[in-house]
Amino acid sequence: PTMSIAWLISREWGIKLMRKAERFSRGKEIKGLVNDERYIPSTHGGPDIRVRIYKPENASADQPLPILLYIHGGGYVLGCPELFGMLIERFIKARPCIVVAPDYRKAHDAPFPAGFDDCYDTLLWARDHAAELGARSDKFMIGGHSAGGGMTAALTWKARDTKDVDVAFQMPIYPMIDDRHQTESGQHMLAPLWGTPNNKLAWSLYLKGRQATDGSVPDYAAPARNQDYTDFPPTITFVGDLEPFRDETIAYADALKGAGVPVKFELFTGCFHGFDGMKSAISTRALDFTFDSFAEYYDTYL
C-alpha cells in the first residue's frame, strides 16, 4: 500500500485526487480535548486561514499554557491538521499545552510563499491572541513532521531574524528542507511512501518559478540553504536512514550543533519516510523519542 501511495503522489493528478479525499477528514475532532476552529485574516492578501485549536479539557484561564504551533506534513502539496490528530493528542498528553494548527495553502494552488505566509500569520495571530486562548505569549514551541518539519525550520529561521516571537524550542521532525537533491539520499531514494520522484515533484510545485541551483531561491523557502544558525533555539529531530531527507536532516542537526545549539537527534536504521506512523517496535521507539524529548525540553525551556 505504501508503494501505491508513493506512485500516486508522484503524479500531479494523483495529488489532486488525494486532496479531494482529504475533505472527509476536515472537522474531525479529538475526543477528550477542547476542539475549536477559527478563520483568521491573512496579512498577505490571501484568503482567511482555517486554524484548528486544541487544548486540555481542564485548562484554566488562571494558568496560561504555552502554545505549540503544529504544522502538518504532506510535501507542501497535501494534508490538513486533522490527519495528524494522534500526534497532536500525544503532545498535549505529554505536557499540557495549546496546539494551534493552520490549514495552510498548498503548493498546487499557491506556491511559496503562500503556505509559509499562512503559517507565519498564524504564529503572529497566536501571539497577539494568547490571552484570549488562555495561553502564554512569551515563549512558543514550533513543530511538525516532513513538510511540516520543513515549515517549522523556516518559521524558526524567520522568527530568529525578526525577533517577532520568542521560540523556546523547535521540532522539525524528518524535515523537508533541501530542494537541490544533491545529497546521496536525495538523489536515488526509491523507498516506500516518499522517495526521490515524489520529492522532486513536490519541490517543483512549491518553488514554481523560483527554483534554481545558483542560490537564488528566497530565504525561508528551503531551510537547508541557510548558512547562519546563530541564536537558533534548541531543536528535536529524527530521521530514518532509508528516506530522501536523511542526509539533509543530519546536516541540519550538525549545523545547529556547530553553532552551539542544543540538539536531540536520532537516526533510525532500516526506516523509510513516515515509519513512525506504522505499527511496529521501532515506530514505538521513534514516538517515545519524540514525546519524551518534547517533555524534557518543555520542562527545561518552559
Task: Outline the structure in words.
The chain is globular. The chain is built from ten helices and eight strands. The chain has a six-stranded mixed sheet with strand order 1-2-4-3-5-6, with helices on both faces. The longest helix has 21 residues, at 281-301. By secondary structure, the protein is an alpha/beta fold. 37% of the residues lie in helices and 20% in strands. It has one domain: 3-Layer(aba) Sandwich (Rossmann fold).
Quick recap of the structure?
The protein has a single domain (2-209, 218-301), classed as Rossmann fold. It has helices at residues 2-8, 12-21, 85-94, 114-128, 130-133, 147-162, 184-187, 196-206, 246-258, 281-301; strands at residues 33-40, 49-56, 65-71, 98-103, 135-145, 167-173, 235-240, 263-268.
